[in-house]
Automatic annotation (TrEMBL), chains A, B:
CDD domains: HTH_LacI, PBP1_LacI_sugar_binding-like. This is LacI family transcriptional regulator. PROSITE patterns: HTH_LACI_1, HTH_LACI_2. Residues 3-57 form the HTH lacI-type domain. Keywords: DNA-binding, Transcription, Transcription regulation. The lineage of its organism: Bacteria, Bacillati, Actinomycetota, Actinomycetes, Glycomycetales. InterPro entries: HTH_LacI, LacI/GalR-like_sensor, Lambda_DNA-bd_dom_sf, Peripla_BP_I. Coiled coil: none annotated. Pfam families: LacI (PF00356), Peripla_BP_3 (PF13377).
Length: 337, 337
DNA sequence: CCGATGGTTTGCATCGTTGTAAGATCGTCA
DNA sequence: TGACGATCTTACAACGATGCAAACCATCGG
């Protein structure tokens, strides 16, 4: 059995409360006592029982991060940053996968598993306005992704609309006029897909380019395979385009692969622009021009925001929205001109 | 404040222990009582306090997974499978990143943070024979990666040596004779890098091809950037090769990118073979021939093995090694002939 | 030499749950 | 009707830690 405060106390010849004081860095402990206790701790290899500690203190020292899937590189890289940021704050991170499924997202919010943590960072995909009540929870919660619904929570994100607008404008500025998009998803009531589509449309409009539905390809989950499938759709229906804007990098990469299989040259025949700036994007062939959404900032800020909620005054704060800056990274698949 | 057993008991007009019995599906509870209690539970939105439960029961319902980085796609995909397998067993997963750093791996094994979990799945990278003692821990521990040291733990892996041997042979069978490798790392005393190098050498030897140090490029961490750097090294030093075996897919992809930048055609001038079968590999241009190490099997088996250790008889089991089957997936970057 | 002072140590109650054992209730049978 | 199991419910003691308040003990000034 693992050693307890009592065991250490017996060995050191003090009361177990004194050991607790040493462990917690209580100010008034005589140096000689402290040293004796510390020796006993080392000898027994004592480690505090975190269940007991959190039962007593009400804090667990863990946060939960819920993303659709770690298989999606964007979320893997995001999770990596979140875990690192949490660790810096002395917290461990419990990772859940929702599959982007509304029911699983809702179930998670009600799950007793969350009682194991001090708060949740959730990247919702399936939920909509009708789920606002489910999001009005008693524990600290920070949402990743834009505040498009009237949800009572903190949000950390970048402006999907502005970024998509800028990306589209970038393609227009480079001389492209028939710009296809991949990733539209009408099931998603108002998430990134919808916002990015809106940004795309507004940019077209601002430049007097008509919106053409035949250039819009849908994709529900954003894997490479979905991007490939969408590009096949576009090609099969004989769509005529000189650029593709993928709503994320994996879609764009899947599409780029199909383009080249079809004998089209990137960027000569078709420029390709992605969204996320995955590590992979820089090493694709050709390398992928993409939107850098400030992933690391988002991760760090999400953890900070959650910590504020967890803190003493967390309950009193009004819901906040924090926006990251985005940048367009120029690479080979869509040169500036 | 969240509701407790007491609150529910008051509302339902029973003792708090009866509520506990209902929650735990205790057999002898009158249906009418059960129903009354369940209504009270629903009304108050009662959720058991997991800290208290695990203090009492000694089980936390969580496992820890420690990998070098989630940024590395292999580990992201692995983590995804581990989390899913754990969830099926009703466990949540806490993810730690070690950076492949020996000190952080050792620190993790001693960390009180682990008391929050029932066991650990660790993918060690920096540790060696001298750390055997540190691995002789009191909690359930399963290691990912091959048992090359005399470590007192369960191992789940595939045969790095056989897989690398087969991969090299595949290239030889396709007519290549000057096969470079990327990923050698002499710091790593006896991990995957060393084993894969050994497999490579043995395959060469079996076919009477001399081992040529100038064809061996090192890389410590296995990011795309490291693969790119290694390939630059090879090209800069004028190495003469007609194939490259990357010790993982990201290395291979980074290298492939540099090859094509240098005007070399893949696979005509240089065949490229990777290791891991990332989702990405199928969509690279050209698509990447690679070794599928049975990642999902490894993840599932690691969780199962850990559960056996956690179980009643876990302490009595001798250390086991479980080997996954690997397959070579033929794609464009290295056709069979 | 005593009480005040302030640092140092301790005892007790408590967090919310579960296991054990004992108590209450009920129907059944002699 | 009363005793007796069987079924249902309850009381109590942990699990290991922390917070509070009280107790202890030097040291110092008067």
């Amino acid at each position: 059995m693992a050693a307890t405060l009592h065991d250490v106390a017996n060995l050191a010849g003090v009361s177990f409360k004194t050991v607790s004081n040493v462990v917690n860095g209580h100010p008034h402990v005589r140096p000689s006592t402290r040293e004796r206790v510390e020796r006993a701790i080392a000898e027994l290899g004592y480690k505090p029982n975190l269940s007991a500690r959190s039962l007593r203190s009400g804090r667990t020292g863990a946060i939960a991060l819920a993303v659709p899937e770690l298989n999606l590189s964007y979320f893997a890289e995001l999770a990596s940053f979140v875990i690192a940021a949490a660790e810096q704050a002395g917290l461990v991170t419990l990772v859940e996968q929702t599959g982007g499924d509304r029911d699983r997202e809702l179930a998670l919010l009600k799950s007793p598993r969350l009682r194991m943590t001090d708060g949740l960072i959730l990247s919702p995909l399936g939920m909509g306005q009708e789920d606002a009540d489910a999001l009005d929870v008693a524990f600290p919660l920070v949402l990743l992704g834009e505040r498009t619904f009237d949800w009572p929570n903190d949000h950390v994100t970048m402006s999907n609309l502005n970024a998509a607008h800028a990306a589209t404008e970038y393609l227009i500025a480079s001389g492209r006029r028939r710009i296809a998009v991949i990733g539209e998803n009408e099931d998603e009531v108002m998430g990134s897909a919808r916002l990015r589509l809106r940004g795309y449309r507004e940019a077209l409009e601002a430049h007097g380019i008509p919106y053409d539905e035949r250039l819009v390809a849908r994709a529900t989950l954003w894997h490479r395979a979905d991007g490939a499938r969408a590009m096949h759709d576009l090609l099969d229906r004989g769509a005529d385009f000189d650029a593709v804007f993928g709503f994320n990098d994996t879609l764009a990469l899947g599409a780029m692969r199909v383009l080249q299989e079809a004998g089209l040259r990137v960027p000569e025949d078709v420029a390709v622009l992605g969204f996320d700036d995955l590590d992979e994007a820089a090493y694709a062939i050709p390398s992928l021009t993409t939107v850098d959404p400030g992933r690391e900032w988002i991760a760090r800020t999400a953890v900070e925001t959650l910590l504020e909620r967890i803190g003493r005054k967390g309950k009193d704060l009004a819901p906040r929205t924090k926006l990251a800056d985005f940048t367009i990274i120029e690479r080979e698949s869509a040169p500036k001109d």
